[in-house]
Amino acid sequence: MVHELSDMNKSPGQALATSITSTETVDALVIVADVGIDAAITSGAFDGVPILGIATGLIRAGRHIKDELFIRKTARFLAGLSGTTHEARQRFVDDLRANGKIDEFGETILLILDRIDDSRKPLIIGRLMAAHVEGKITYDQVTRLAAIVNRCYAPDLDYLAKFQPGPQGEMQTIADALFSAGLLQNCGLDGGAIGDGLSGGTIYEKNDYAELLIEHGLR
């Protein structure tokens, strides 16, 4: 109870940052891998994770669906970060704190997670954040990619992962959606073969954000 009260005094940004660097988060995610999120909630495995401890208590008291969805999305986001070293995560959080960006970071990520409409997307965004923590992509790139992922219909991202440039034939509608989301670039039109309406169409290629998303988020 004392632990929960101390978490309540933290801002959302501080609570998320503390969770990223906490060894209790790593332990909780190991339990999730073994028994699943439902069992982890029931067992109290998330109680020591600042951003999740209060919400798990509320769930066990009355199973508020919004709190449960928040836990599921946040746990999957943190799971995406689990492949990074503790030292890298600590250095990342220390830099945020030194630059006065803790609250801004946490609120931005939590707003993104709140808007997510698919269970796979938090893990993808967590992997993208892991790439940022490791210095592979910039903060602007990860936040922009997170917004792009949110705009996509999740199964379309499976198509992006194996995308080949050129006219997309029967998959033109999916390619159009990926273009609208900001992941493909229009390189003109292919007239196609006479009598074959599917051989031509818009010529699409992956843009830089698609390449970053595939490399760091869809692996």
Task: Give me the secondary-structure topology.
Elements (H helix, E strand, L loop, with lengths): L1 H7 L3 H10 L1 H13 L1 H7 L6 H13 L2 H17 L4 H13 L3 H14 L5 H13 L5 H13 L2 H8 L10 H10 L2 E7 L10 E6 L1 H9 L3
Antiparallel strand pairs: 1-2
Read across the widest sheet, the strand sequence of neighbours is 1-2
Helix content: 55-70%
The total count of strands amounts to: 2
Total helix count?
A: 13
Q: Radius of gyration from the CA trace?
A: 20 Å
General form: elongated
Run of helices and strands: HHHHHHHHHHHHEEH
Ranges where pLDDT stays below 50 over 5 or more residues in a row are: 1-8
Oligomer: single chain
Structural class: mainly alpha
How much of the sequence is in beta strands?
5-15%
N- to C-terminal distance: 39 Å
Mean pLDDT rating:
83
Structure, described:
This protein is mainly α and 219 residues long. Helices cover 67% and strands 6% of the residues. The protein is built from 13 helices and 2 strands. A two-stranded antiparallel ribbon has the order 1-2. The longest helix has 17 residues.
Could you provide a short overview of the structure?
The chain is mainly alpha-helical. The chain has 13 helices and two strands. It has helices spanning 2-8, 12-21, 23-35, 37-43, 50-62, 65-81, 86-98, 102-115, 121-133, 139-151, 154-161, 172-181, 208-216; strands at 184-190, 201-206.
